[in-house]
Design brief:
The complex is a heterodimer of chains A (325) and B (368). Chain A has 325 residues and is α/β, with parallel strands linked by helices. Chain A has eleven helices and 14 strands. Chain A starts with a strand and ends with a helix. In chain B, strands 2-1-3-4-8-7 form a six-stranded parallel β-sheet, sandwiched between helices. In chain B, strands 5-6 form a two-stranded antiparallel sheet. In chain B, a hairpin with a 2-residue loop joins strand 5 (204-205) and strand 6. The chains are: A alpha/beta (325), B alpha/beta (368). At the A-B interface, helix 3 and helix 10 of A face helix 13 of B. The structure holds thiamine diphosphate and magnesium ion (MG). Thiamine diphosphate (TPP) sits between chains B (94, 142-144, 171-175, 200, 202, 204-206, 272) and A (29, 58, 60, 82, 86, 89).
């Protein structure tokens, strides 16, 4: 096992898949010569050359659509969006084309495309650059969405995404890029749709994804030390497909659930999770399901206030205590 | 407008920089001494404000993205200096220079960068999202190319209201490859809108040189022909030339209600943003060459010294005052308060901020 960063884990996944399958192509703005706006693709151009690692103009609708088209003919494009916020100018391609082609062709055409890039707030860049569209995109059948929180999951999910035969949208987080963690040396994947219990506990289940997992783990520490509460943290890892069983098994054990996400609350991922829990584990619940999301407003620029807007450990602890009361 | 088949650069850019050929152009000849000094002062203010921002950023008081306008001052200064009451502007995220040009104060601009409630957008927009609608400045837009259709809409509204005005939408050499820009071009031409698309060609979009991003790279403005629009190329290091050629586009908008694409050749001295180490895609000699030979502030300064409009003493006084003003702004920004947590959910909806018996909205609109 090597200890590497989340960024290196993503890069290793792309590198290994570029080596494994000659149809894999990495494409996006500044991914090649500039080595990536966030250096995720650093060194790939040097190793694989300009046929496999391609710089694009600032034409998201064009190059994402092109990637979808190429995937229909068997290319396996791994498209970088400098930010998922920029996916909005390519929304038609991402949703209408990638998400519907297989269905509308009665299963004749597949879109094995990966679109990846950061989707997070917390970096003081204001409303246009801080979107977290996992819920919006996952609400479209035909599309798969994953949100890794650790280097291990980042690598395993990225490799699974590249091998998957459907459109998979990988939402990363710039704040996690430097986080370190153990990653196996040998080939592995993390299958889409398998949640991970990141911390075992008995009194409360916290369900989270992306950086909210890290926040929840911090909150769990505080709850244990300062309040003597044993918290289980379930990391969804994958939004669609969603691992209902792991969520339900945890709730059946702890009888209390708190859902934490960095999305805005309205129709967030956790709205769906809450529905599943109440529909399938209602009798196991000892308290109403709690929820922490970002304060419901476009992302504020002011850094101090943005840190308040996003879920943070203190807010998660307070919400947990309410569910436990 | 007969043009050579492949025109890459404005004629004046092919020669070593010297006295401006456009000094005697009517729109420049009409400037009084005081107006010339004022124009120079504005350019110097942009330069010193931006340089003060670097310090504030390095002190950790500005975070996020900070895109500087240093080197490009003559573009905003030249174009905006021509505008009147019914003329509007809109730009991308490299928006400080335009803000100062329309008359925003250094205080509100600096305070916005530090996220303070005294900022032009109350700490909600940040560096990429300046706004001053009272000064006909409609932002400050973070998404590349998004301002082009918006600007076209401003031009549409001006025409709809029967006003003699226009809109200038600024964008970079990379932005011309966004689909929205092309859709805006077509609309502006199809509907004869008083619109001026200003391409600030600084040679690079982040780490991508203009040649690497654009098919038919010889001339970005020439794409206008595909939409039947007029176009021109401008040496953006010479504020007189910027004024002279932009004036023709403004007249075309005002008098004929026709759009124009202007490509203004310019250069940015610093990285794409403060996050760009600027080490890989261009060499230091290139930057040095522009700084030494084509600096727009320095060239205009020399012009005005030669004209006897400025003296070394008045020049120094102007620059010292601009530096002092930027220092004051930094202190103002430092001492200003943050927005509060309650402020986070303000300014989302007009109806929510102004609920009353005549509101057209009911129900929960901000969720927990
Ligand atoms: C739709 C979209 N894609 C990508 C970006 C990221 N981005 C911001 S500025 C920029 C380069 C733009 O270059 P150019 O248009 O030449 O303007 P300049 O920065 O040189 O002023 C890129 C790729 C963005 N903000 N919006
Ligand atoms: Mg540029």
């Amino acid at each position: 096992m090597a200890v590497i960063t989340y960024r290196e884990a993503l890069r290793a996944a792309m590198r290994e898949e570029l080596q494994r399958d000659e149809n894999v192509v990495v494409m996006g703005e500044e991914v090649a010569q500039f080595n990536g706006a966030y250096k995720v693709t650093e060194g790939l151009l040097k190793e694989f050359g300009p046929k496999r690692v391609v710089d694009t103009p600032i034409s998201e609708a064009g190059f994402i659509g092109l990637g979808i088209g190429a995937s229909m003919l068997g290319i396996r494009p791994v498209m970088e969006l400098m930010f998922w916020s920029f996916s909005y100018v390519a929304f038609d391609q991402i949703v209408n084309n990638a998400g519907n082609i297989r269905y509308m062709s009665g299963g004749l055409i597949n879109c094995p495309i990966v679109i990846r890039g950061p989707a997070n707030g917390g970096t003081n860049v204001g409303a246009t650059h801080s979107h977290t569209p996992e819920a919006i995109l996952a609400s479209h059948p035909g599309i798969k969405v994953v949100c890794p929180a650790t280097p291990y999951d980042a690598k395993g999910l990225m490799k699974a995404a590249i091998r998957d035969n459907d459109p998979v949208y990988v939402m990363e987080n710039t704040i996690l890029y430097n986080d370190k963690g153990e990653v196996p040396d040998e080939d592995y994947i993390v299958p889409l749709g398998v949640a991970d219990v990141k911390r075992v506990g008995t009194d409360l289940t916290i369900v989270a994804h992306g950086r909210a997992v890290i926040t929840s783990l911090k909150a769990a520490e505080i709850l244990e030390k300062e309040h003597g509460v044993s918290v289980e943290v379930v990391d969804l890892r994958s939004i669609r497909p969603l691992d209902e069983e792991t969520i339900l098994a945890s709730v059946r054990k702890t009888h209390r659930a708190l859902l934490v996400e960095e999305n805005k609350p309205f129709c967030g991922v956790d709205a769906q999770v809450a529905y599943i829990i109440q529909a399938k584990a209602f009798d196991d619940l000892d308290a109403p399901i709690g929820r922490v999301s970002s304060i419901d407003a476009p992302q504020i620029y002011c850094k101090r206030m943005e840190d308040e807007q996003l879920p943070h450990a203190a807010r998660v602890v307070a919400a947990a205590l309410k569910v436990l009361a | 407008m007969a043009k050579p088949a492949v025109l890459t650069h404005p004629e004046s850019l092919k020669k070593p920089a010297g006295p401006s050929e456009f000094a005697k152009h009517p729109v420049n000849a009409a400037l009084s001494k005081a107006e010339k000094v004022a124009l120079y002062t504005k350019m110097a203010r942009i330069r010193h404000f931006e340089q003060r921002c670097i310090r504030t950023y390095q002190q950790g008081k500005i975070g996020g993205f900070l895109h500087l306008y240093v080197g490009q001052e003559a573009v905003a200064a030249g174009t905006i200096s021509l505008l009147g009451k019914h003329d509007h502007i809109i730009t991308g995220y490299r928006d400080h220079g335009h803000g100062l040009m329309v008359g925003m104060s250094m205080n509100e601009c600096m305070a916005e960068l530090t996220g303070k409630v005294t900022g032009c957008s109350q700490g909600k927009g940040g560096s990429m999202h300046y706004f001053a609608p009272d000064k006909n400045y409609w932002g400050g837009h973070g998404i590349v190319g998004g301002q082009a259709p918006l600007g076209t809409g401003l031009a549409y509204a001006v025409k709809y209201k029967g006003l003699k005005g226009c809109c200038l939408a600024y964008m970079g050499d990379g932005a011309v490859n966004q689909g929205a820009v092309h859709e805006a071009y077509n609309l502006a031409a199809l509907w004869d809108l008083p619109m001026i698309f200003v391409i600030e060609n600084n040679g690079y979009s982040m780490g991508t040189s203009q040649e690497r991003s654009t098919a038919h790279p010889g001339c970005l403005a020439k794409r206008a022909e595909g939409y039947g629009m007029a176009w021109d190329v401008i040496n953006g290091h010479d504020v007189y030339e910027v004024r002279a050629k932009t004036d023709a586009a403004v007249k075309r908008a005002h008098e004929e209600s026709k759009p124009t694409v202007l490509e203004i050749f310019t250069y940015r001295y610093f990285g794409h943003s403060m996050a760009d180490p600027d080490k890989t895609y261009r060499d230091k000699e290139e930057i040095k060459g522009y700084r030494e030979n084509k600096d727009p502030v320095l060239l205009f300064e020399n012009e005005l010294l030669a004209e006897g409009v400025l003296t070394p003493a008045t020049r120094d006084a102007i620059n010292e005052a601009a530096m002092a003003e930027a220092d004051v702004a930094a202190v103002f920004a430092e001492e200003s308060p943050d927005p509060t947590v309650a402020d986070i959910t303000k300014h989302i909806y007009w109806e929510e901020d102004n609920r009353g018996p005549n509101s057209t909205s009911r129900g929960t609109i901000i969720f927990e």
